[in-house]
From TrEMBL:
Family the UniProt entry places it in: Belongs to the cytochrome P450 family.
PROSITE patterns per record: CYTOCHROME_P450
GO cellular component: cytoplasm
GO biological process: organic acid metabolic process; xenobiotic metabolic process
InterPro entries, alphabetized: Cyt_P450 (IPR001128), Cyt_P450_CS (IPR017972), Cyt_P450_E_grp-I (IPR002401), Cyt_P450_sf (IPR036396), Cytochrome_P450_fam2 (IPR050182)
Domain of life: Eukaryota
Organism: Caenorhabditis brenneri
Cofactor requirements of the protein: heme
Protein name according to UniProt: CBN-CYP-35A5 protein
Pfam families according to UniProt: p450 (PF00067)
Length: 477
């Protein structure tokens, strides 16, 4: 153990077999959260530190420069992720979330290309986001009493973001007649996320099956229900294509499913492109594309309600650019809205929605930030710790967009989507959603809290943060 430790960045003294588990548990308990625990270790051992989780060393990087050096400059070395055994069992080596190697590479390349094709040229992406937002706002306006509508932020954003991704993947949005089934699945998924902890990500599936069967069965059930629901229309289209009742129009692809089916139609089914991998991909993109964006939006509105002066300043900027709201805010305005960009950057830094980032496998001994890192170690840019590093972001606990107005380059050091080969596949979609939704909502409504606002973190011990329970009033401008 001593010899191994000398080939790794510093960290607390580790014991054979159990590693640093006693210290980790102790500090989680005393600090009250995963992020505060990482922050404490960073202050003690530096921007790159090692924690042994059982017999495996986990190296966390908590500064931008070293993360960039490792995951961008040496990107190809860190393409392999460690996958939770439970994910592997569920995904059966298909899709993009829990795979490595050639299949992952092909699925990622194809998804990025398809999303890019939707956003380039015809601006389909912006159109789909705006169509959805306009429809949701029309619902809000219909329910207004004296220009005011009170609603749960989660309901509004779940439906908005859920419809956008569903439309992109399988070509339809959620309306009055089909929203109930969506919300049912979404609630089941939320519950699964709430019980899903770093423990479930690490242990072999047999431990869950034998010792926590209720937990294991619940997660498997949610996954199956979600897959059936999300991929239903894609499966129907596939069957219709097989029986000759549906032909894909190459010049006019409706959505991701059309693009995938076209590939099957042209090249035939193979190990990468087949109906099972299509279903898995749709679920992967559907799940990753929702919770993340919704949590950021809710967390952002919570901060805007706590800081009405920020909301007013952002609105004044948008009003000026859109000539007093005479047109909607568009993605082409991004280079002119310095304050709104700073607000969204601060929302993402402050929300930092993943408490723990995904681990990559270090295949060979390498130097990182001047420290030797042995092969076999797990490595990650620990985004949550990086975003509260006070040597980069002064008073990190404060919500303060002005920090980016004083130093615009500081925005580059906010990396909510990660870095390198495994960085977020939906980054461009998510950035477009956040910009258009925050910007255009501020243009149309003033927002006021309904009930008490939350200032404390939810689920501080989970893998990812969860949205606050936030009720707010949309006041028509
Ligand atoms: C605000 C919204 C979002 C945030 C903060 C976010 C954040 C992240 C982060 C931190 C990662 C892991 C990066 C790493 O391992 O270093 C990730 C991966 C991923 N994200 Fe996102 N994400 C968001 C929205 C989306 C959307 C809209 C989609 C879908 C279209 C998406 C799809 C994915 C996928 C598929 C991966 C796994 C990529 C791979 O392993 O190759 N995300 N995301």
């Amino acid at each position: 153990q001593y010899q191994k430790v000398s080939r790794l960045p510093p960290g607390p003294v580790s014991l054979p077999l159990i590693g640093n588990l006693p210290q980790i548990v102790y500090y989680l308990w005393t600090t009250g959260s995963i992020v505060a625990t990482f922050d404490l270790f960073r202050k003690r051992y530096g921007n790159i530190f090692t924690l042994w989780v059982g017999p495996i060393p986990h190296v966390s990087i908590a500064d931008y420069e070293t993360s960039h050096e490792v995951f961008v400059k040496n990107a190809s070395k860190y393409a392999d992720k460690f996958h939770a055994p439970l994910f592997q069992e569920v995904k059966k080596e298909q899709g993009v979330l829990a795979t490595n190697g050639e299949h992952w590479q092909e699925m990622r390349r194809f998804a990025l290309q398809t999303l890019r094709n939707m956003g380039v040229g015809k601006d389909v992406m912006e159109m789909k986001i705006m169509e959805e937002l306009n429809a949701r706002c029309a619902d809000i306006d219909k329910k207004a009493v004296n220009g005011v509508t009170t609603t749960h932020a989660a309901d509004f954003f779940d439906l908005t973001v859920g419809s956008i991704i569903n439309n992109i993947l399988v070509g339809y949005r959620f309306e009055e007649h089909n929203k109930h089934e969506f919300l049912k699945i979404k609630n089941a998924l939320d519950t699964a996320f709430e019980i899903f902890t770093p423990f479930d990500m690490t242990v072999p599936t047999w431990v869950l099956k034998w010792f926590f069967p209720k937990r294991y069965n619940q997660m498997m059930k949610v996954n199956a229900e979600c897959k059936d629901f999300v991929a239903k229309s894609a499966t129907e289209r596939y069957e219709a294509m097989k029986s000759g009742k549906y032909t894909i129009d190459k010049e006019n692809l409706q959505d991701y499913t059309d693009a995938f089916l076209l590939k099957i139609q042209e090249d035939g089914e193979n190990t990468d492109y087949n109906i099972e991998s299509l279903k898995t991909m749709i679920v992967d993109l559907w799940i990753t594309g929702q919770e993340t964006t919704t949590t950021t939006l809710i967390s952002g509105f919570n901060q805007l309600l706590l800081h009405p002066e920020v909301m007013d300043k952002a609105r004044a900027e948008i009003m000026k650019i859109t000539e007093n709201g005479s047109r909607p805010l568009s993605l082409s305005d991004r280079s002119s809205t310095h304050y709104l960009n700073a607000v969204i950057g601060e929302i993402q830094r402050h929300a930092s929605i993943l408490n723990i980032n995904f681990w990559r496998i270090n295949h060979e001994p390498t130097y990182m930030g001047g420290h030797l890192v042995d092969s076999g170690a797990f490595v990650t840019a620990q985004l949550s710790a990086l975003h509260v590093n006070e040597t980069v972001f002064k008073n990190p606990q404060e919500f303060d967009p002005e920090r980016f107005m004083e130093d615009e380059k500081l925005l580059q050091k906010v990396i909510p989507f990660g870095l390198g080969k495994r960085s977020c596949l939906g980054e461009s979609l998510a950035r477009s959603e956040l910009y258009l939704i925050f910007g255009n909502l501020l243009l149309r409504y003033n927002f006021e809290p309904h009930g008490k606002l939350s200032t404390t973190e939810t689920l501080p011990y989970s893998f990812a943060k969860r949205p606050f329970k936030l009720e707010m009033q949309f006041v028509k401008i």
